[in-house]
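Bumping with the actual sequence this time:
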Amino acid sequence: QVQLVESGGGLVQAGGSLRLSCVASGSIFSINAMGWYRQAPGKERELVAGIVSEGSTYYADSVKGRFTIFGDVAKNTLYLQMNSLKPEDTAMYYCAATKNYDAGVDYWGQGTQVTVSS
């Protein structure tokens, strides 16, 4: 089992920045990829950014150039640096991990709320 605990959400004005953190614990050696998803009210959960063990990254078109995903192996922590935030970035953000990036998500965090005011 893997446990994921997010932090770093909050209320920020448009144009501002936030950094989300996700601390992983448990059987993390089994993890092949991690990512950040978000879900806004009335919308489906979507993948925002992902990173695989080799270091390759993925970004949704809506966040390219504004968000950066990176990890600190020594701290077992995944980060999402979010710059130039927009009101449409408002959502619950979830950390996710998978044992196989070609398959579905195996583990979810509890989520952290990001609210961007205009």
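The tokens above came from a reply further down the thread. Residues 31 and 89 are 27 Å apart (CA to CA).
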